[in-house]
């Protein structure tokens, strides 16, 4: 087992990893930017190192500075969390060359699954259902139009190296294809320095269902059930729950088997997520694989009783999975709401500032993952998510009621948040009936 782990991240996920390490008896090193000098993760870690200015590219995205800190502090592994360098194959390869264990899959797997076109072809070869789409990378409008005509409108235009909703546009007709393609490609070049696109059939009003998987270095792969992430705004998830109200036991079995097949086809090792779209007829299609821990991992922890961060660390240390598929039982219902420092009344404008006062709810089945505290200054340089409210109940109705109580009790003063907006979501009749799809926000709350 590792003696010391450096956490190459910030915010609530860095705090989450530090806590897991402490429980395992592993020392931790936090890295921080100048803007995060007083951040909670720097205070909780055993050691902390400043790695640069506030700008992410000069701190949390600086591979050389993070590796230098790792070697200087004698850490034998790096946990990348999510975001930043967590799915960067170059960084994982640099870790491998420096003899530092990257807590995640190998660099080749990250590279293969990070390219959506390549990941798609891997799934086709493995017999995992995919949305009909282009087989070859698309670099210009002419080839894009030809691919779209073959796939059939409406189509989704996607950045091959994309993620987080960037570089994605829908073209409902051939007439609007060129404009949407150029917009998506421009975002892809700006966000990922890669103009490669691909085209796929646009599945209308789907559910977004993802399966959590664990895979060790001995070829053992299991899934931990699904999370329903259909409530999204501009492809950014807002509410996640497990199990999905739209998935039957039989469909769960089929999708779970496909998720395990997908992970094996990728040669995967670590915790990861296989993401699917499910249409109105309950057909499911692979869309991508996330080769990291995800923001919404706590809902799976709540219904399975497993600690996914600890499982990641054990797998990276070369240990064999102790749990088998038959041991995975989903108990009750869990739900997560992301609390962001933003103003929904002003087009969700980010709202950095100082936390004047705060109160986090508690009680049976309520968990808060956050890194803010009274007097903490939220810097303007990073993602606006400041907390996650997670609840666990005996069934979905109880989970919704617990979330209503928790959001009603939550106090964060000094900055605007989306707390009231989240209450609108979970109290909306369509959501309460479990009938939401990925167009829920646009249809009912725009």
In short:
By secondary structure, this protein is of the alpha+beta class.
Please describe the structure with a list of short key phrases separated by commas or semicolons.
446 residues; alpha+beta; Rossmann fold; Dna Ligase, domain 1; D-amino Acid Aminotransferase, Chain A, domain 1; 3 domains; eight-stranded antiparallel β-sheet; five-stranded parallel β-sheet; 15 helices
Number of domains: 3
* Mean pLDDT across residues: 96
The appropriate CATH architecture of the largest domain is 2-Layer Sandwich
What order do the strands of the largest sheet run in, or round the barrel if closed? 13-12-9-10-11-14-21-19
What's the total number of strands?
22
Hey, roughly how much beta strand do the residues contain?
Answer: 25-35%
Question: Whole-number radius of gyration?
Answer: 21 Å
Q: What is the CATH domain class of the largest domain?
A: Alpha Beta
**Remind me, CATH topology of the largest domain?**
D-amino Acid Aminotransferase, Chain A, domain 1
User: What structural category characterises the helix and strand content?
Assistant: alpha+beta
How would you name the oligomeric state of the polypeptide chains in this document?
single chain
Kindly, what is the distance between the CA atoms of the first and last residues, rounded to a whole number of angstroms? 49 Å
Report on the biggest sheet: 8 strands, antiparallel
**Could you estimate the helical fraction of the residues in percent?**
25-40%
């Amino acid at each position: 087992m590792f003696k010391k782990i450096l956490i190459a991240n910030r915010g609530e996920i860095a705090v989450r990893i530090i806590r897991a390490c402490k429980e395992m008896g592993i020392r931790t090193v936090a890295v921080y930017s100048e803007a995060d000098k007083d951040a909670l993760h720097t205070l909780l870690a055993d050691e902390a190192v400043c790695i640069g200015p506030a700008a992410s590219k000069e701190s949390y995205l600086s591979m050389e500075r993070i590796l230098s800190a790792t070697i200087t502090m004698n850490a034998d592994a790096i946990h990348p969390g999510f975001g930043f360098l967590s799915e960067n194959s170059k960084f994982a390869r640099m870790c491998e060359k420096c003899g530092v264990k990257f807590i995640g899959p190998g660099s080749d797997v990250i590279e293969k699954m990070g390219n959506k076109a390549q990941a798609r072809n891997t799934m086709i070869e493995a017999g995992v259902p995919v949305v009909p789409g282009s087989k070859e990378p698309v670099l210009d409008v002419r080839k894009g139009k030809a691919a779209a005509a073959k796939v059939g409108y409406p189509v989704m235009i996607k950045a091959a190296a994309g993620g987080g909703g960037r570089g994605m546009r829908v073209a409902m007709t051939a007439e609007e294809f060129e404009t949407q393609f150029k917009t998506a490609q421009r975002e892809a070049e700006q966000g990922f320095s890669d103009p490669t696109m691909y085209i796929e059939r646009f599945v209308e009003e789907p559910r977004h269902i993802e399966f959590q998987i664990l895979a060790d270095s001995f070829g053992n792969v299991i899934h931990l059930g699904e999370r329903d992430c259909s409530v999204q705004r501009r492809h950014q998830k807002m509410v996640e729950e497990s199990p999905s109200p739209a998935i039957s036991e039989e469909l769960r079995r089929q999708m779970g088997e496909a998720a395990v097949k997908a992970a094996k086809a990728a040669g995967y090792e670590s915790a990861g997520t296989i993401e699917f779209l499910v249409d109105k007829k309950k057909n499911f299609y692979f869309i991508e694989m996330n080769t990291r821990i995800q923001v919404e991992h706590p809902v799976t922890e709540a219904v399975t009783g497993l600690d996914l961060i600890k499982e990641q660390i054990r797998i990276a240390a070369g240990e064999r999975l102790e749990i088998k598929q038959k041991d995975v039982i989903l108990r009750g219902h869990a739900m997560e709401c992301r609390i962001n420092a933003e103003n929904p009344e002003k087009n969700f404008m980010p709202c950095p500032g100082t936390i004047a006062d705060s109160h986090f709810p508690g009680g049976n089945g309520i968990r808060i993952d956050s890194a803010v505290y009274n007097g903490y200054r939220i810097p303007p340089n990073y993602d606006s998510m400041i907390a996650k409210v997670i609840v666990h109940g005996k069934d979905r109705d109880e989970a919704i009621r617990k979330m209503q109580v928790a959001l009603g009790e939550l106090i964060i003063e000094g900055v605007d948040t989306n707390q009231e907006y989240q209450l609108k979501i979970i109290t909306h009749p369509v959501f309460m009936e479990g009938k939401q799809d990925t167009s829920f926000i646009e249809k009912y709350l725009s």
